[in-house]
Amino acid sequence: MKTQKKVQAGGEDFLVLRLYVAGETPKSVAAIRNLKKISSDHFHSTCKIEVIDLLKNPKLARDHQIVAIPTLVRSLPPPISKIIGDLSDTEQVLVGLDLRRSRAKAKN
Amino acid sequence: MRHRAKSSKGELLPLEKIATGIPGFDEISFGGLPKGRTTIVCGGPGCGKTMFGIEFLVRGALQYDEPGVLMAFEETPEDIATNVASLGFDIQDLARQKKLYLDFLNVEPTEIRESGKYDLEGLFIRLRSAVEEVGAKRVMFDTVEALFSGFSNPQILRSEFRRLFRWLKDNHLTAIVTAERGDGNLTRFGLEEYVSDCVILLDHRIKDQISERRLRIVKYRGTKHGADEYPFLIDERGMSILPLSSLQLQHKVWDQRVPTGIPDLDAMLEGKGYYRGTSILVTGTAGSGKTTVAASYIDAACKRGERCLYIDFEESSSQVARNMLSVGIDLDHWAKKGLLVHEAWRPTQFGIEMHLLRIHKLIDKIKPQCVVIDPITNLISGWGDREVHSMLMRLIDFLKNAGITALFVSLTSGGSDLEQSSVGISSLTDTWILLRDVELNGERNRCVYVLKSRGMAHSNQLREFVITSNGIKLIPPYIGQAGVLTGSSRVNQEARELQEAVQREAEDLRREQEIERRRLSLQAQVASLQAELAIVDKEVAAIARENQDRQERSELDRANLARSRGAD
Question: What ipTM is given for this predicted complex?
């Protein structure tokens, strides 16, 4: 399932996110829902979100080094960061995506 | 909770096991790892856990036609491949042949943040696709700590592990999970609570500056297993485990006799030599000729076309070969023909079990009919008598079972009672040949005697032996009035006796002649007396005749006178 949101060419803070899920499990569904909410509330720049269902594409789990489900990967802008979980903790998501300049910015 | 398979009648079937192919392990576990279950292999760093798991996979693929999956969390498959390449395992080639599936799961904690609940379904997805890809029957996870350190929520991890092990069981996969040793627990994260079918503990310790590796089956539910610590080594062929106490006093017995290589010694052993498949102990002080006795046996065995293994803890093979040439034994010749393998290494190089393992491996490789260990006393120094005794017992048992005739050379310190063997090995061997030096008149001469030889009427004589350029020769014993004599005093005594014998003969001759003379002289006397007697007899006769004549004359005269006077 691919969803594109607010695509504009040549945007400065162009975000590319990938969300890896496994079918329609409660966590996967929650993650998708939470991500939609976060992106509508907090993403002020253009972003491209891709949802990849590993049950349909199991080979990608190895190729993209996914162990936990769900996993949200920010591939652009670099560096790559990963967030695992159903994304119910918004704060952690924003910090993880480096969208919030908070005290907890430094990655542990 | 385990569920044991039940037969159609509802009886519990014995636990099925799957062979690992690791030498020694399948013996002590009586069949291998539990089939379709997960085994934990735990231990400190560098103790060989990964090696064990890899060997399990590789041998499964190569020897048992069971493809495997390696899920690595710590080292990349490339690193692992490099590490095991020196053992002759080419796991990348096996991956190319689809006999192994290698997957590296990167769980870098620095890169990952957690937001909300998650599970390890990604791991499952990859595992499923891996198993499907090669049709795997064996799986290995290395190591669980890496997973734990990658994710901060131990509860999630524990429940996922439970799920994982259930999944493995449901899919009839035999798995190994490696884990670090914890303080107090077997594993750092207490994994043994979930996976309690079989737990193996590996240990790597340093004792007296020598590294020792040990393996122990801590738990193996539902079956008997060796519960001791077993020493093992890792060498260029992988892991080898030596079963320590799997010994039963049951072995085949051979009736055949094999010559000792010293014909005179054969004569002391009923004229036939040693029994095949027995063990022979040759003890003696320094320089008493033990190695020569051993080499003589090898020479004879090689002449028969039998393979020999000579394990030397003291001299190099070239040195022994040179020394034996002077006795007329050409060991190099046999080595070139492939009948003799002469290995020398220092006893201080390894721990005692390592020696035993090395010997086992050599015997496995060469399959000799005869083994010489020269000397075993070097092994004793530094190790407890009991340990050495135990090791020798195992070795002798193994050799007997294999029908290998074994000769052990042992150095005694002389002075004190030579028949005391500090290790008590003499009770383990079937034949005991003692080489002894006898000191007499400022000389030391070599003697040999057979102290015991089970199953035969051996000679109990002490015989002097000499090492000639044609080998060892035994001289018949000389028992003089002062006991056994050897060396130059023997020679002297022999000369003296010879002289005495000659003298006696001369004496006898003289006496004979003397008597003969006397006899003749007596005979002469007798003859002369008889002659006298004859003369006397004649005289007597003559006198008698004279008398008669006189009487007759006198009568005649009277008659004449009477006539002339008278009658007219």
Answer: 0.82
